[in-house]
Amino acid sequence: MDDPIPNVSVGVASLTENTTAAVPPVLDADNLIKVFTHFLTFDVADGAASAETITYLEQDEANRLLQGIDHSDELKLVRDRLLLGLMTIEGTRTVELYRCNLADIKRLGKEVGLKLDGKRRVRTIPLTPELAKLLDIYLTLRRAAGFDSTLTDPLFISFGHQCSGERLSRRGMRYLVDHYLNEVDLKHQPGRKISAHSLRHTAGTLAVQNGVGLRQVQELLGHADLRTTAIYTHVGDKWKNNPGLKLGVSVLKPEETGE
């Protein structure tokens, strides 16, 4: 999600070393500002999602998704609740959960964390008390079912007939997310399609909307650049700050507004 800013020094060096190179036309002030602005905003505009394109769940929808999974003590269902809970509340990527082993569970007194190997960095995220409790339930049920529990074993395992006990694939994780989204009718809606990565955007968006600081959200999501995290501050701004709301002009009759 965090593509690096392009190295423009290479082009400058090649021009200075080759004195016979054609000199580009001099940019006027307006075009120079446009080029400079594009350079400064490359990471957000070109290398990451924008507030215009990301999809996420509202708070009530996120609750609907997580509460829609059967809350029985069946091992597979507890695994699914933990998996979707981590993605929706902690904003974890599928690749991070795919790489996660039992050795990556970190405990500090009563606090529980999870070490994640992300795109270009390793970080440890703190688990909420509910997720920590669900993790312990999952591990207990898993041991009782006879699955290996050495430190090098994967955290999330498959329960299919042919691959039971093996590392749950990223494709398998995305399938589970889509399955539960469809179960609660949240996968496809007019103008919006929710995916596994949308759950990561859900965590970032809801955190910012509920007053969490950008630095804390950046650390949680593992963004290399704070500008990427700042996208979540703009989600919903266009509607909340729509100048049309200030005009005092109505297209509905009083009886149609329901007020």
Would you write up a description of this structure?
By secondary structure, the chain is mainly α. The chain folds into 2 domains: 37 residues, no CATH class; 175 residues, hpI Integrase, Chain A (Orthogonal Bundle), CATH 1.10.443. Helices cover 47% and strands 8% of the residues.
Taking pLDDT < 50 over at least 5 consecutive residues as the criterion, the unreliable ranges are 1-24, 35-47
Question: What is the overall shape?
Answer: globular
- The average pLDDT score comes to 83
Name the beta content range. Answer: 5-15%
The H/E string reads HHHHHHEEEHHEEHHHHHH
CATH superfamily of the largest domain: Intergrase catalytic core
The major pleated sheet works out as: 3 strands, antiparallel
Widest sheet, order of strands = 1-2-3
Number of helical segments with 4 or more residues: 14
Number of strands: 5
Short description:
This protein is mostly helical and 259 residues long. It has 14 helices and five strands.
Keywords for this entry:
hpI Integrase, Chain A; 259 residues; three-stranded antiparallel sheet; 8% strand; two-stranded antiparallel sheet; mainly alpha
Set out the fold topology:
Elements: H1 9-17, H2 29-40, H3 42-45, H4 59-67, H5 75-89, H6 94-99, E1 105-108, E2 111-117, E3 122-126, H7 129-144, H8 170-183, E4 188-189, E5 192-193, H9 196-209, H10 214-221, H11 226-229, H12 231-234, H13 237-240, H14 254-257
Antiparallel strand pairs: 1-2, 2-3, 4-5
